[in-house]
Design a protein that fits this description.
By secondary structure, the protein is α/β, with parallel strands linked by helices. It has 12 helices and 13 strands. This is Trichome birefringence-like N-terminal domain-containing protein.
Length: 434
């Protein structure tokens, strides 16, 4: 050890004993402090800077990628949502055996998915890097805060991925108000961090008028101008909201405004105008974002998460469609089109309107743009590996949700990046006020 010569010289010279004791105690204390630093408890391979060949358990220390983002004003110089998928031999960071939060229909390895190559990728933005999610850093930033996921089952998919990634640090306790599985609440007691899920696939008020419906997936009365009170009355206390929706608007629906039928989507009822899918979605999303802007006591940040496209090939979801690819697309191999493109454009347009209006009221809206990255991952869905063979399930080949572990884990990389930028904005604003 390099310290041995120092100790030998000190003992040989027999200098002042009190100085020796003080030096010894100081070195012992300095040696013990790192053992209690959370990043030393965190496996090095989970915080490695994958753009470098060196590995360090303190890769988020004084020369971190985050610090470079701050210094280079990365928000302005690099769009982290545009890039390619590159190899990541260190993934995944949990398994279906180590995380209890995985729903059965996303537990691809349990149900026999034979390939694992789809797990070995990470997102590489064009012109910069996106650090792998650091659960200790995330929880430390979320200390004494709260976050709510609002929307459909893909949003729940994202939240479960986050819980699995955080399981390397701590599992939350269930503090839900009741047994309704559509509305759950958890708490990370060490960090006093609350995580909640609000099931609202249309975001606005909806009533199921026919459980079977024209396509055997139900018929829904959707009140496009009425925010869903199941979540709008509950969110003022949260620091962060993550909104998602779109997929359910492909279902057969009757659209209402001011409690009057204005049209429908594939309802098959006489004397009712058939409107486009996107008509209903645009109205509902506008209603949703306006509702958040109208909440006087809500001071948090709203993330609008854009659509993650499905990847049915060879037919529609109920007509033999499947998704059996085993690797990602390159960005020049596919394009966003059809209803996914319409939904995406609507999300971006309504986000811009809400953000502009929100700025006048001190509200903060951010776009969590997952669309490009997930468009390139047709290999990440459960397909037929979300159930046992010959099981009687509605979505036999699931090309909508995402395997856990899987590409959706990258969403936490994006989320943490945006939270860091949010922290920088808060610092900048506080400096401007001084």
């Amino acid at each position: 050890m390099e310290l041995l010569p120092f100790w030998r010289n000190c003992s040989t010279a027999q200098r002042t004993p009190r100085i020796l004791i003080l030096v010894s105690l100081t070195l012992i204390i300095l040696g013990l402090i790192p053992l209690y630093h959370p990043f030393y408890r965190y496996p090095a391979n989970l915080v490695v800077d994958h753009s470098s060949k060196t590995t360090s358990p303190l890769s988020y220390g004084t020369t971190t990628k985050y610090q470079k983002i701050i210094e280079q004003d990365d928000e302005d110089t690099c769009d982290v949502f545009i890039g390619e998928w590159v190899r990541n031999p260190d993934a995944p960071y949990y398994t279906n055996m180590t995380c209890w939060a995985i729903h059965e229909h996303q537990n691809c390895m349990k149900y026999g998915r034979p390939d694992i190559d789809f797990l070995k990728w990470r997102w590489k933005p064009k012109g910069c890097d996106l650090p792998i999610f650091n659960p200790y850093q995330f929880l430390d930033m979320m200390r004494n805060k709260s976050m709510a996921f609002i929307g459909d089952s893909v949003g729940r998919n994202q939240m479960q991925s986050l819980i699995c990634l955080l399981s390397r640090v701590e599992y939350p306790i269930d503090i839900s108000y009741d047994t309704d599985q559509n509305f759950r609440r958890w708490k990370y007691t060490t960090y006093n961090f609350t995580l909640a899920a609000y099931w609202s696939p249309f975001l606005v008020t909806v009533k199921e008028s026919d459980p079977d419906g024209p396509s055997h997936t139900g018929l829904f009365n959707v009140y496009l101008d009425e925010p869903d009170p199941k979540w709008t009355t509950q969110i003022e206390q949260f620091n962060y909201l993550i909104l998602n929706s779109a997929h359910w608007y492909t279902r057969c629906s009757i659209y209402y405004e001011k409690n009057q039928i204005i049209g429908c989507h594939y309802c098959g009822l006489p004397n009712i105008t058939d409107l486009s899918i996107n008509y209903g979605y645009q109205k509902a999303l506008k209603t949703t974002l306006e509702a958040i802007n109208s909440l006087e006591n809500f001071k948090g940040v709203t993330f609008v998460r854009t659509i993650a496209p499905s990847h049915f090939e060879g037919g529609e979801w109920n007509k033999g469609g499947h998704c059996v690819r085993q690797g990602p697309f390159r960005s020049n191999e596919t394009t966003l089109d059809g209803i996914s493109l319409e939904f995406y454009r609507t999300q971006v347009e309504e986000f811009k309107v809400a953000a502009k209006e929100g700025k006048k009221k001190g509200k903060r809206f951010r776009l969590l743009d997952m669309t490009q990255a997930m468009l390139l991952r047709p290999d990440g869905h459960p397909s037929k590996y979300g159930h046992w063979p010959n099981a009687n399930v509605v979505l036999y080949n699931d090309c909508v949700h995402w395997c856990l572990p899987g590409p959706i884990d990258t969403w936490s990389d994006f989320l943490l990046h945006m939270l860091k930028l949010e922290g920088r904005r808060a610092i900048d604003e506080s400096l401007q006020l001084k």
